[in-house]
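Please review this one:
***
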Amino acid sequence: MPPYIHPPGGTGLPSTGATIFLTRHVFCVLSLLAMLLFPASSCPPPCLCSSDTLVVDCGERGLSSLPPMHLLPPGSRSLLLANNKFASLGASSFANLSSLEELDLSNNYLDNLPAGLFRDMSNLTRLTLHNNSLTVMDRELFQGLVSLQSLDLSLNGLSTIPVGSMDELQHLRWLSLAGNRLHGLERAAFEPLVNLQHLELGQNPWECDCNLRDFKHWMEWLLYRGGKVDALECTLPKDLRGRDIRGVPVEMFNYCLQLEDENGGGGGDGARSGQGGGPPCSRSALIPSGATPVSDNSGGAGGDSSSSTGGGGGGGEASSDCSRARYRPVSVRRAIGTVVIAGVVCGIVCIMMVAAAAYGCIYASLMAKYQRELKKRQPLMGDGEADGEDREDKQISSVA
């Protein structure tokens, strides 16, 4: 048997270069398998991600800019960004996050949010912007939030709510505007909120004047259909300071109608909405999709007719220069009817009281007259009895 001869240049063991080559390939294969088997393990570096509840918690991390949103686990439902140092956000900060249902941006320093910031968040149901520095709100800020049910804008510096900013929030049920700088609100801005059930308006410097009259009517309609509104205390005028506007009689706003007549017949609403004295919008353009229209008691007066075609367009879209028609809720019409009926009843009661007083006076005078005549007849009746007794005495003496 010939002796075993080793191959030239080695001892029969793998070389060092071959070992390194195999090790690198094995590591690459294992890394690839790990990425395929555990795709949900990705999470933005400063955040905590829960695979069970699909919650991404980035709160109280001292962040001044958003973490990389592309590292969010697929299918995340809640993104918590509260108690950080965000001062501004880009227009595409929340792009392609359609799976989110909750977004919390409370307790930051946000002072201006770009239009369409939440455009891609069609499944969002809860948005919290509590305790920021918002002073103005873009009309298109909430565009795309068709599923939103809860919106918290409390403790900011908002002084107005733009008309049209809530047109897409038809599923909103809870809204807080407490702790802002609101002096008055436009009723037209809240009419699309057909499913609203809870509204917070406290801690605002409300001016209970003609600018708040129409919103008071809308608030009465909300209360009539079972909604809840917290106290709305007046700051001005002085004679209403501290009073809840819900308890202020609507008759105290009658002077507003006189002012409108003096200023050109109801031009106040158009002036406030920035439309001047333009033609009214068609009813089909004012009623949001899915909402049930409410009949109006004005019967077309004051530019409330739905058959107007001037500037309304044949497709049901309102013209850009039209003014929103005045809306009187059912509760106000019933309140007016109650006042009329109460006035009639009070009038009837007053007439009955006058009649009863007259009857009492006549009866008292007749009784007094009867008593006087009775007193005059008593002496005459006494003389007649005395003569009768004398006659009887004389007859007895004659018989004797």
Notes: The chain has six helices and eleven strands. Residues 32-40, 265-320, 322-330 have pLDDT under 50 and may be disordered. Residues 330-399 form the longest helix (70 residues). The radius of gyration is 42 Å.
